[in-house]
Amino acid sequence: MILGSYNNKLCLCDWQNEKRRLQIDTRIRKGLRASYVESGSDVLTQAITQLEEYFHNKRTTFDIPLLFVGTDFQQAVWRELLHIPYGQTYSYAALSQRMNHPEAIRAIAAANGANAISVFVPCHRVIGSNQRLIGYAGGLPAKQFLLDLESPTNRLFRP
């Protein structure tokens, strides 16, 4: 995974092999009027710690300050994703209903796919109406891994 921060807020947590890597990176650089510089920050250290805890079944929620870089509609979708509870999934249709845009399923799916802050903004929790896995930046095996990790039968502790 690749992490990025700006003004001590997490703006990037994405898969390095993401096929839209250039598109996402361009959107972030232009939106922030900044370029990437390899360095550390407090928020990156916290993000790494929280990711390690999550992957070891010791964390079900995150409290990292986030910075969304995208259109107002994309940001609204990403904020809505934050309300999908750990261990649960929503369909794109259910997400569009929750957002009071039942006709915007494709636009919501596109915004979901443009999420640059994977795991922290749980786009992996959105699946097809037929309960099948549909698209994920890290690939469907990574999506399945994350959903399995969050499965109640896999938890080493109860939140």
Structure write-up:
It is a single chain. With 159 residues, this protein is mainly alpha-helical. Helix content is 39%, strand content 9%. It has a two-stranded antiparallel sheet with strand order 1-2. Strands 3-4 form a two-stranded parallel sheet. The model is unreliable at 155-159 (pLDDT under 50).
How are the SSEs ordered, and which strands pair?
Layout: E1 2-6, E2 9-14, H1 21-32, H2 42-55, H3 72-81, E3 90-91, H4 92-98, H5 105-113, E4 126-127, H6 140-149
Parallel strand pairs: 3-4
Antiparallel strand pairs: 1-2
Helix pairs in contact: 3-5, 4-5
Could you say which overall geometry the principal axes of the C-alpha atoms support?
Answer: globular
Distance between the termini: 26 Å
Largest sheet: spatial strand order: 1-2
Strand/helix succession: EEHHHEHHEH
- Beta-strand residue fraction: 5-15%
Give the overall pLDDT as a whole number: 90
Uncertain spans, ≥5 residues at pLDDT below 50? 155-159
Number of helices: 6
Largest sheet, strands/sense/barrel:
2 strands, antiparallel
Structural class: mainly alpha
**Count of individual beta strands:** 4
User: Over all CA atoms, what is the radius of gyration?
Assistant: 15 Å
The helix content is: 25-40%
